[in-house]
Amino acid sequence: MKKLTIKENPISINFFDLSGNEEYKLIRTEFYEDSNGVVMVYDIDNRDSFSSLVHWEDEMKRNGVDLSRCKVIVCGNKCDTKGREVPLKDAQTWCKNRGYAHFETSASDAVNVTEAFESLFAMCLDQHLDDRKKFGLR
Protein backbone atom coordinates (compact mmCIF):
# COMPACT_ATOMS: atom_id res chain seq x y z
CA MET A 1 0.00 0.00 0.00
CA LYS A 2 1.21 3.47 -0.86
CA LYS A 3 -0.17 6.63 0.75
CA LEU A 4 0.18 9.89 -1.11
CA THR A 5 -1.57 13.13 -1.93
CA ILE A 6 -3.01 13.76 -5.38
CA LYS A 7 -4.70 17.07 -6.18
CA GLU A 8 -4.71 17.94 -2.47
CA ASN A 9 -6.55 14.67 -1.63
CA PRO A 10 -4.91 12.08 0.63
CA ILE A 11 -5.27 8.66 -1.00
CA SER A 12 -4.11 5.10 -0.40
CA ILE A 13 -3.16 2.93 -3.33
CA ASN A 14 -3.06 -0.87 -3.26
CA PHE A 15 -0.81 -2.33 -5.96
CA PHE A 16 -1.07 -5.86 -7.26
CA ASP A 17 1.34 -7.20 -9.87
CA LEU A 18 -0.79 -9.72 -11.72
CA SER A 19 2.11 -11.32 -13.61
CA GLY A 20 1.61 -12.50 -17.15
CA ASN A 21 2.83 -16.00 -16.36
CA GLU A 22 0.20 -18.67 -16.95
CA GLU A 23 1.02 -20.33 -13.62
CA TYR A 24 -0.38 -17.26 -11.80
CA LYS A 25 -3.67 -17.11 -13.72
CA LEU A 26 -5.84 -18.49 -10.91
CA ILE A 27 -4.35 -16.07 -8.40
CA ARG A 28 -4.60 -12.96 -10.57
CA THR A 29 -8.25 -13.45 -11.54
CA GLU A 30 -9.25 -12.71 -7.94
CA PHE A 31 -7.95 -9.15 -8.18
CA TYR A 32 -9.61 -7.91 -11.35
CA GLU A 33 -13.19 -7.24 -10.29
CA ASP A 34 -12.72 -4.30 -7.92
CA SER A 35 -9.91 -2.63 -9.84
CA ASN A 36 -10.10 1.12 -10.36
CA GLY A 37 -6.96 1.35 -12.45
CA VAL A 38 -4.81 -0.89 -14.58
CA VAL A 39 -1.30 -0.60 -15.98
CA MET A 40 -0.78 -2.74 -19.08
CA VAL A 41 2.87 -3.13 -20.09
CA TYR A 42 4.49 -4.28 -23.31
CA ASP A 43 8.09 -4.23 -24.50
CA ILE A 44 8.68 -1.82 -27.36
CA ASP A 45 11.31 -4.24 -28.66
CA ASN A 46 8.86 -7.18 -28.78
CA ARG A 47 5.93 -6.94 -31.19
CA ASP A 48 4.33 -10.08 -29.70
CA SER A 49 4.10 -8.46 -26.27
CA PHE A 50 2.25 -5.53 -27.85
CA SER A 51 -0.07 -7.83 -29.78
CA SER A 52 -0.91 -9.72 -26.58
CA LEU A 53 -2.43 -6.59 -24.99
CA VAL A 54 -5.72 -7.66 -26.60
CA HIS A 55 -5.48 -10.94 -24.66
CA TRP A 56 -5.03 -9.04 -21.40
CA GLU A 57 -7.94 -6.77 -22.25
CA ASP A 58 -10.15 -9.82 -22.83
CA GLU A 59 -8.99 -11.45 -19.59
CA MET A 60 -9.81 -8.28 -17.66
CA LYS A 61 -13.31 -8.13 -19.14
CA ARG A 62 -13.96 -11.83 -18.46
CA ASN A 63 -12.97 -11.31 -14.85
CA GLY A 64 -15.16 -8.34 -14.01
CA VAL A 65 -13.24 -5.24 -15.05
CA ASP A 66 -15.65 -2.61 -16.38
CA LEU A 67 -13.46 -0.84 -18.91
CA SER A 68 -16.00 1.97 -19.21
CA ARG A 69 -15.12 2.94 -15.62
CA CYS A 70 -11.72 1.44 -14.86
CA LYS A 71 -8.85 3.71 -15.85
CA VAL A 72 -6.15 2.13 -18.01
CA ILE A 73 -2.68 3.26 -18.93
CA VAL A 74 -0.43 1.39 -21.32
CA CYS A 75 3.31 1.54 -20.89
CA GLY A 76 5.67 0.71 -23.71
CA ASN A 77 8.62 -0.32 -21.61
CA LYS A 78 12.31 -0.48 -22.49
CA CYS A 79 12.33 2.85 -24.32
CA ASP A 80 16.04 2.93 -23.45
CA THR A 81 16.82 0.00 -25.79
CA LYS A 82 17.67 0.12 -29.49
CA GLY A 83 15.66 -2.82 -30.87
CA ARG A 84 12.27 -1.16 -31.36
CA GLU A 85 9.66 -3.40 -32.99
CA VAL A 86 6.55 -1.39 -32.00
CA PRO A 87 6.35 2.03 -33.64
CA LEU A 88 5.24 4.75 -31.24
CA LYS A 89 2.44 5.79 -33.60
CA ASP A 90 0.98 2.24 -33.66
CA ALA A 91 0.85 2.12 -29.86
CA GLN A 92 -0.60 5.62 -29.58
CA THR A 93 -3.32 4.82 -32.11
CA TRP A 94 -4.20 1.53 -30.38
CA CYS A 95 -4.49 3.32 -27.04
CA LYS A 96 -6.40 6.32 -28.41
CA ASN A 97 -8.98 4.02 -30.02
CA ARG A 98 -9.66 2.53 -26.59
CA GLY A 99 -9.43 5.69 -24.51
CA TYR A 100 -6.24 4.58 -22.75
CA ALA A 101 -3.33 6.82 -21.88
CA HIS A 102 0.02 5.78 -23.34
CA PHE A 103 3.52 6.27 -21.96
CA GLU A 104 6.90 5.09 -23.14
CA THR A 105 8.87 4.08 -20.07
CA SER A 106 12.12 2.57 -18.95
CA ALA A 107 12.00 0.66 -15.70
CA SER A 108 15.80 0.43 -15.64
CA ASP A 109 16.33 4.18 -16.17
CA ALA A 110 13.11 5.34 -14.42
CA VAL A 111 11.98 7.23 -17.53
CA ASN A 112 8.30 8.28 -17.30
CA VAL A 113 7.53 5.70 -14.60
CA THR A 114 6.50 8.26 -11.98
CA GLU A 115 4.57 10.27 -14.58
CA ALA A 116 2.67 7.19 -15.74
CA PHE A 117 1.63 6.16 -12.23
CA GLU A 118 0.72 9.70 -11.19
CA SER A 119 -1.42 10.04 -14.30
CA LEU A 120 -3.25 6.81 -13.48
CA PHE A 121 -3.77 7.83 -9.87
CA ALA A 122 -5.14 11.22 -10.91
CA MET A 123 -7.56 9.61 -13.38
CA CYS A 124 -8.79 7.18 -10.71
CA LEU A 125 -9.21 10.00 -8.22
CA ASP A 126 -11.17 12.05 -10.77
CA GLN A 127 -13.49 9.07 -11.36
CA HIS A 128 -13.98 8.66 -7.62
CA LEU A 129 -14.71 12.36 -7.09
CA ASP A 130 -17.12 12.39 -10.07
CA ASP A 131 -18.93 9.38 -8.62
CA ARG A 132 -19.24 11.02 -5.21
CA LYS A 133 -20.59 14.20 -6.79
CA LYS A 134 -23.01 12.22 -8.97
CA PHE A 135 -24.45 10.48 -5.93
CA GLY A 136 -24.50 13.60 -3.73
CA LEU A 137 -21.71 12.42 -1.41
CA ARG A 138 -19.05 14.75 -0.03
Features:
single chain; 138 residues; Rossmann fold; two-stranded antiparallel ribbon
Write a concise synopsis of the structure shown.
With 138 residues, the chain is α/β, with parallel strands linked by helices. The chain has helices at residues 25-28, 47-51, 53-62, 88-98, 113-134, and strands spanning 2-6, 9-13, 37-43, 71-77, 101-104. The chain has one domain (2-134): Rossmann fold.
Query: How far is it from the N-terminal to the C-terminal residue, by CA?
Result: 24 Å
Tally of DSSP helical segments: 5
Number of individual domains:
1
Spatial strand sequence of the major β-sheet: 3-4-5
CATH topology-level fold name: Rossmann fold
Radius of gyration: 16 Å
Q: Which CATH architecture? A: 3-Layer(aba) Sandwich
Overall pLDDT = 91
Number of strands: 5
- Morphology: globular
Structural class: alpha/beta
